[in-house]
Amino acid sequence: MTMGTLVTIVLLTMVLILGGYFVSRIFTGATENIDGIDAAVKSEINKLFGEDSSKKIVIYPSTREIIIKKGEDSLGFGLSVRNVGDESAEFSYEIKAEEVSCNLQLLEAEDYIALGRTRSNIQIPAGSIMENPIFVRFELPETAPPCRIRYSINMKKGSDTYGSTVDVDLVIKAK
Q1: Domain ranges, residue 21
Q2: pTM for the whole structure
Q3: Are residues 169 and 86 in the same domain?
Q4: Model confidence pLDDT, tens digit, residues 84-116
Q5: CA distance 69 to 146
Q6: Where are the alpha helices (DSSP H) in the chain?
Q7: CB of 122 within 8 A of CB of 90?
């Protein structure tokens, strides 16, 4: 082998090793950012519960308005519950589309909820807050019109309604 070939092989090996190193750093950084966002949401929800000890249900963001541009996926809101009772209890909830400001059927609007539309068997000890908030995520098709959609969250403790219905507004914006 010539000296030029050996130098080329050494340089390509170094580029390959450095490329692998930088790719692993990027993925590690992305994972740390996601963990940081999760911790920030938990912190904000705990802060909202701390501001008012009578709150049973908390939504984050506290404005209860989620703005999503078409093409952005997996954005949504955090939801947490406090058991103000004296005994451990089982909670459940359901999210339904109640109102739209555009030419869209309510069932279509409900289909925009990708994850977290319903949940049951949420066990919460007496006087405690959910350990891990639920994140409700939306996925919008490219055909979604610019629109406002109001969703209602109906929480139940056992078979009884728990607290009042909480509304969340989704604002769909064009790209």
Answers
A1: 1-51
A2: 0.73
A3: yes
A4: 989 999 999 999 999 999 999 999 999 999 999
A5: 9
A6: 3-51, 106-111
A7: yes
